[in-house]
Amino acid sequence: MSTDEPYAPEPAGPGPADPALAHRMPALGSLQLLLAVARLGSLGRAAEELGISQPAASGRVRAMERELGLALVDRSPRGSRLTPAGALVTDWAGRVVEASAAFDAGVQALRDRRDARLRVAASLTIAEYLLPGWLIALRPLRPATAVSLRAGNSEAVAALLLDGEADLGFVEGPAVPAGLDAVTVARDRLVVVTAPGHPWTRRTAPLDAAELSGRPLILREEGSGTRQVLAEAVGGLAAPLLELSSTTALKAAVASGAGPAVLSELVVSDELAAGRLVKIPVAGVRLTRELRAVWPAGHPPVGPARDLLGLTRGGRG
Q1: d(Cα 261, Cα 272) in Å, to the nearest integer?
Q2: Could you give the CA distance from residue 125 to residue 195 in angstroms, rounded to a whole number?
Q3: pTM value?
Q4: What is the mean pLDDT of residues 10-30?
Q5: Looking at residue 21, what is its pLDDT?
Q6: Per-residue pLDDT for 315 more than 50?
Q7: Do 127 and 85 share a structural domain?
Q8: Which domain does 233 fall in, by range?
Q9: Distance CA 194, CA 41 (A)
């Protein structure tokens, strides 16, 4: 004898019980329950198979009958059987459940393909001095993810993100590029540096904004976050003494005596410690900046990009 609890389907007339519910689709779990009842001939065994209580299963069946305006299951001491309408609904339910499984499999395949790679774009200071540590920390979390890194100035990073060619970016400029959302991951300080024999090393007073804006400097190229921050801080820049797109080349030019430059403290820390470059004091100029992670507006990072973003929140600055 079945151990199913007494159950009586709610009466249903020829039309839906509530016109407002006539076009509602039962929840996927309810359809799976109906299929299990049809296969097992018992609401109790169906509930056990799906890992729910028998009262909960009875409630789901009643809810389906109310939604559809149809009696679906007849109960008796010998077990549960489908009504003619229930049998037809069960046939349709099988197609829905199969389609749902195919949908889930397809979505998972897309996630797997997305998670197999991570495309990062970063401005040079972040790419050279912060990202390596972050990517090393990411490796244990995403060992199967292949990471590619494209380094360029802040404008180039924004373009790669907006063109869909990068999953996550990092920029150094004074403002968030248009079309992107951002979060600050670190803070950085710019410093004025010269070769040890430069006349500025013998100054007794710090530099001010007027001297920095009026003196030709060795600068990064247009679009560089470092150059943008400096120009905003001093109110404009004179024509550059030299314009270089590589921080390594820029440091070498300064060390050779070609002229002064303004660079990230992260970039020149080793040269300052070794005495190859000298930091020149500056007063009345705000040379700190925010280093930001960026992504297309309204599309927050997911998968490996989200994991990397989480690791950066403890960055230096």
Answers
A1: 13
A2: 21
A3: 0.64
A4: 59
A5: 45
A6: no
A7: no
A8: 117-312
A9: 86
